[in-house]
Input
Amino acid sequence: MVARKLSILISFALILCLCCCAKTNTQDDETHTNLPAFQDHRDTDDVGIMINAYQKPFDEGYEYEVIGTDGVSLFYSKKKPKPMGTTLIESFIVSIPRESAVETILLDTSYEGLYYVNEEIVTTEGIFWSLYDASGCCIQFYDFNNQDIIQIKHIPEAKNIVLNADNRFLIWVEWEIVDDEESPYLLGKLYTFDVLTKEVKMVSDKVYSISPYARFPVNGGKCAFSTIDQDSKKICRYDLDLMNVTDSFEVEIQDPANIMTANDRIIFSNGILDGLKPLDIYIYDCSSGEMIKVHSITEDHNIFSFHLIGDNLVINDDHIETDNATASLIFRKLDQLTDYEAVSIPEGYFVFGKVIDGHYYIVEDL
Output
């Protein structure tokens, strides 16, 4: 796990909620994993990096994915797929403490009939996920306080509903294909669910993307996304509490993508990360209205993902070749654009590019 130590103190609120509020079951058979010893800790005046490597858990016939943390345990989705198929036999949300590596079932997300579950997100208030069956997609929420499951919205015939959330707000986009002769694109309606009020509201009906898998991360009740109106494209920063646009600017870039916001900044690239073409990363300062290019992704690099964490740009580059390393994380302070801090990842570890609550994760590739 790579954790930014600039201004973040690991919070234990999530584990308290999980232990005190959620209905839990502990497996009779304890599942143990051998935790690797790889650690790397550095402190500088500009960037502090802490790496803790977690070995991927293993239970034969099941697939695991990290979906959350409280600093003590990692939370995983655990799924048993049907042989030679895409549907599931059963599915769970489990927690695994780093020290003991004992697997505990937090929630059973299994469903009768042909189904699939994905997009699981653990927050301090509960757990979100998408449930797919023959009728479409149902977005669901397990509330730690009430210990019940809420059906947030059913979307008929939906196939690609991508969820993003912070501890209060969930957002998603429902896409339609616009069959433009020159360049087809997706036009979407962006919705939000407020954990406090349990209300669903539409944020925008003009969201633009060329990929149905576009993510618009939520950070402190704010998100950023691209819109299209006739031939004009804008990037907007939206306050989900106030339900209004706080900042917006027009972009001449054909396909703005990977849009995210933090600390009065908006960051985006000139296209999706498909590994086929070089990309540039831009940042817009909402206070000054200035936009600059902060990084160029060239053909010499294979960028899996990049993320905005506070005042830092984190780039997951799995093409850099160094001694005994298969990947590298590049940390860049946005107020000191010439300063980099690179972390080489030892062979045998897979950097899968997920940021959860300001932490970056490395899981051993078994």
